[in-house]
C-alpha cells in the first residue's frame, strides 16, 4: 500500500514543476540602453521594477545588457518585454523588427531634449573651434551622445570625420565627462540630463569642465514594447507610468531617479525627425 503514494508524489512534483515554469514565463523583463554605469542603471531601475510589479501583478526583473545593440536585439527578439531606448535606438529597433515595436511613454522632458558640448580648453568657445581637435561622443548608437551632436555639427558645416583630428567613442555619457575632465580629449558631447545630474551630485566641477554649446531641442528617450504585446497589457503600462506623481513618496522617488517631471504618452511619429537625422548623417541605411 505504501507504494501507492509514489504516483501521487510524482504527480505533485510534476504539478510543482509546471507551476514554477508558469511563474518563470510570467516574469516581466525590462532593460535599458547602458548609457550610464551599470551601478547607476541598477539603482535607477530597482524602485521602478518594484512599482511595476505591483501594478502589473507579475514578477518584474531588470535585465542589464552589454551595449546599445544588445538592447535593440533583446526587444526585437522578445527576450525582454519593455525597453528604455533613446530616440535613435528606437528607430534602430523599429527597423530591426520590421516596424514591430511600439513606443508607449516618454518623460515630459523628452519632448524637448538637448545635448551639450563640454571642454576644459579655454580656447574652445564654439563648434567651429573644434576643427583640428579631439572630440569624444558616447555610444555610436546614442541619440543625445552621438547622432544629434553629429547632426548639429554637420549643420554648422563641420564634418567630424574630416574636420576633427580624432573622434572617440566613450560608450556612455558619464565616461565622456571623465574623458574630457582627464584631458584625454579636447571636448565631448553628451546628454544634458546626465550632465546636470553629475553637476548636482558634485561629480564634476563646472568651473573646470564647462558647457560651450547646447543644441536645439529634439525628441529623445522612450519606453518601448514589442508590437505583439496584448493591447490590454500596453494600456496597463501606460497607465502605470502616467500615474506616477511627485505628490506621493514612491512617485517622487521614482521620477527623481528617472530624472522626469512626469511621464506622458508618446507615438512613433515623434521620432521621424530622429530617423531623418540618422539618414542625413549616414548612420541609417
TrEMBL record:
Annotated Solute-binding protein family 3/N-terminal domain residues: 27-254
GO cellular component, one term: ATP-binding cassette (ABC) transporter complex
One Gene Ontology term from the biological process aspect of the record: transmembrane transport
Entry keyword Signal: yes
Signal peptide bounds: 1-24
Keywords: Signal
UniProt xrefs under NCBIfam families: 3A0109s03R, ABC_peri_selen
Family per record: Belongs to the phosphate/phosphite/phosphonate binding protein family.
Name of the protein in its database record: Putative selenate ABC transporter substrate-binding protein
Organism: Variovorax beijingensis
Taxonomic classification: Bacteria, Pseudomonadati, Pseudomonadota, Betaproteobacteria, Burkholderiales
Amino acid at each position: 500500500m505504501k507504494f501507492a503514494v509514489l504516483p501521487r508524489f510524482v504527480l505533485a512534483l510534476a504539478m510543482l514543476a509546471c507551476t514554477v515554469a508558469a511563474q518563470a514565463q510570467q516574469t516581466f523583463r525590462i532593460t535599458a540602453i547602458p548609457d550610464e554605469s551599470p551601478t547607476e542603471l541598477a539603482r535607477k531601475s530597482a524602485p521602478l521594477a518594484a512599482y511595476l510589479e505591483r501594478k502589473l501583478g507579475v514578477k518584474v526583473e531588470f535585465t542589464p545588457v552589454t551595449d546599445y545593440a544588445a538592447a535593440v536585439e533583446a526587444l526585437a527578439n522578445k527576450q525582454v518585454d519593455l525597453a528604455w531606448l533613446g530616440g535613435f535606438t528606437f528607430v534602430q529597433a523599429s527597423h530591426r523588427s520590421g516596424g514591430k515595436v511600439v513606443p508607449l511613454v516618454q518623460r515630459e522632458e523628452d519632448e524637448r531634449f538637448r545635448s551639450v558640448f563640454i571642454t576644459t580648453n579655454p580656447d574652445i568657445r564654439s563648434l567651429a573651434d573644434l576643427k583640428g581637435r579631439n572630440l569624444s561622443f558616447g555610444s555610436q548608437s546614442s541619440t543625445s551622445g552621438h547622432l544629434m551632436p553629429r547632426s548639429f555639427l554637420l549643420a554648422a558645416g563641420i564634418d567630424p570625420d574630416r574636420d576633427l583630428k580624432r573622434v572617440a567613442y566613450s560608450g556612455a555619457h558619464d565616461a565622456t565627462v571623465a574623458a574630457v575632465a582627464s584631458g584625454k580629449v579636447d571636448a565631448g558631447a553628451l546628454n544634458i540630463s546626465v550632465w546636470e545630474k553629475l553637476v548636482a551630485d558634485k561629480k564634476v566641477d563646472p568651473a573646470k569642465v564647462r558647457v560651450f554649446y547646447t543644441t536645439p531641442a529634439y525628441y529623445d528617450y522612450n519606453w518601448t514594447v514589442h508590437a505583439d504585446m496584448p493591447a490590454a497589457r500596453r494600456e496597463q503600462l501606460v497607465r502605470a507610468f502616467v500615474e506616477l506623481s511627485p505628490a506621493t513618496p514612491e512617485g517622487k522617488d521614482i521620477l527623481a531617479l528617472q530624472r522626469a517631471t512626469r511621464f506622458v504618452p508618446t507615438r512613433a511619429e515623434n521620432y521621424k525627425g530622429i530617423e531623418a537625422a540618422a539618414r542625413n548623417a549616414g548612420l541609417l541605411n
